[in-house]
Amino acid sequence: MESFEQNDGNRDELIIQQQREIEKEISDSTPLVSEQLPLNCLRAEYEGDEIFTAKIQELAKKYKFIRRTRPDGNCFFRAFAYSYLEYLISNNSAYQEFRKLAEASKEKLVQLGFPSFTLEDFHDTFMEVISRVSPENAEGTAKVQTELHKIFNEQGYSDYVVVYLRLITSGKLQEDADFYQNFIEGDFTIEEFRHQEVEPMYKESDHIHIIALCTAIGVGVRVEYLDRGEGSLVKAHDFPEGSEPTVYLIYRPGHYDILYPN
Amino acid sequence: MSTPARRRLMRDFKSIYHRLLFCFAFSIALQEDPPTGVSGAPTDNNIMIWNAVIFGPHDTPFEDGTFKLTIEFTEEYPNKPPTVRFVSKVFHPNVYADGGICLDILQNRWSPTYDVSAILTSIQSLLSDPNPNSPANSTAAQLYKENRREYEKRVKACVEQSFID
C-alpha cells in the first residue's frame, strides 16, 4: 500500500474555488450586456476626479450612448460581437457577406487543425444567432434588435458566440503566425499564446487579439482609451490601422464597453 | 432540462461510444486485442458526473494499470473545465494525494474545444511524461528526477493496487 505525503494540499483547486466565487459575485450584479445608457453616466464613477471628468466631457462630444458589458474577461469579444451584429441589422449587404464568411469559417478552422467534432457545436450556435438577427425579418429592425439583446443576455448563446470568436482569433494567429509572433512578449510561441491567452474563456484581450479578429472578419474597430494619460484628449486607435470603423468601443484599464457615435 | 452543458455532454458521450465500438470492431477484424486507451461514461442518474478509466500506457511503469477516475462537470462546461480526480491511488509527480491532477489543460490552458476523450487522452500522456517542475506530489517528483528505479518500483506498486480497487 502506498503512502502519500499529506502536506501536498491541492492548491489548484483552492485557487479555482476562490476564482469561481469572485466570478459569481460579478455575474450576480451585472448583466452580460446592459441597455443603452447616456454616456454621461460614466461621470458618476469618477466624481471628483478632474482628469477623468474632463476626458468624459470630451468623449461626450463624439458619443451619445454607452452599452456596458460584464467585466468577466470576455468583454472585448462580447462587446465586439454585439456591436457588429447590431450594425449588420441595418446593413443587409454587409450582413449577407458576413453570413457567408461565418458559414465558411468552420471548414477553414478544421483545416487549421481544430477538432471538427467540438467545433461544430460552437459553429452551429454561432450560425443560429446570426440567423436570428437577420435584417430580412418581416417584423422590422426594432424587433430584431430586441432579439439580439435577448440572445446576448442568455449565457448559453452569449458565451458560445464568445467561444467561436476566440476560435476564429486563434485560427488567424496560427494562419499568420510569422506576423503575429512579433507582437508577443517573452518566450511564448504563438502556439502557447493561443492555448493560454486566446482560446480559454475569461482571458482578457490585448491589441493582438483585436487585430487578429478584425483582420479575420474584415471589420474596422475604433477603441477610445479612457485612462490617466496626460491632457484632456481621449486617444483613439483604429484596428486594423487606417480602416474605416464600424464598431466603436471604449477601453478603461482592463475593460471594454460599446460606444454609440453621435 | 437541456442546457448547453448537458447537450454537449451527450455529444461527448456519443463520440466516445462510437470510438470504442469502432476500436472493438477493428480489433475483432484484425483478431487482435482491443487497443488499450481510455473510456468514460456518465453515472447512472447524473450526466454531470462521469466515471472513467485510463489504461496505463505501454512501455511505461504504468503499463497494465487500470486507473479509475471521476469527472465532475458544472453547467459552465465546456466554457470551464470539469474537475477530474483519480479514484485509484496513483503515484505520480502531478497527482495530488486526494487524486486531484495538476495538468495545464484542466486549469489555465483549458479550451472549450476539448471534450472528454481529449481530457482522458491528455491525462494518459501525462502518465507517460510527468512534469516534475510543477509537482503535486513532491516525493514522486524527487524520485522521478533522482532515483528512477525507486520511482518505478513505487509506480508498479500502485499499478498492482489498481487491479484490486
Overview of this protein structure:
The complex is a heterodimer of chains A (262) and B (165). Chain A is of the alpha+beta class and 262 residues long. Helix content of chain A is 53%, strand content 15%. Chain A folds into two domains: 30 residues; 231 residues, Peptidase C65 Otubain, subdomain 2 (3 helical TM bundles of succinate and fumarate reductases), CATH 1.20.1300.20. A six-stranded mixed β-sheet of chain A has the order 1-2-6-5-3-4. Chain A is globular, with a radius of gyration of 20 Å. Chain B is an alpha+beta fold. Helix content of chain B is 40%, strand content 16%. Chain B has a four-stranded antiparallel β-sheet. In chain B, a hairpin with a 2-residue loop joins strand 1 and strand 2. In chain B, helix 3 packs across helix 4. The radius of gyration of chain B is 16 Å and the shape is globular. The model of chain B has no long low-confidence stretch (mean pLDDT 88). The chains are: A alpha+beta (262), B alpha+beta (165). The interface between A and B is medium-sized, with 29 and 36 residues.
Which helices and strands occur, and which strands form pairs?
The complex is a heterodimer of chains A (262) and B (165).
Chain A: H1 11-29, E1 33-38, H2 50-60, E2 63-69, H3 75-89, H4 92-111, H5 116-132, H6 141-152, H7 155-175, H8 177-180, H9 190-198, H10 207-217, E3 220-225, E4 235-239, E5 245-252, E6 255-261
Parallel strand pairs in A: 3-5
Antiparallel strand pairs in A: 1-2, 2-6, 3-4, 5-6
Helix pairs in contact in A: 3-6, 4-5, 5-7, 7-9, 7-10
Chain B: H1 4-30, E1 38-43, E2 46-55, E3 66-72, E4 83-86, H2 116-128, H3 138-146, H4 148-164
Antiparallel strand pairs in B: 1-2, 2-3, 3-4
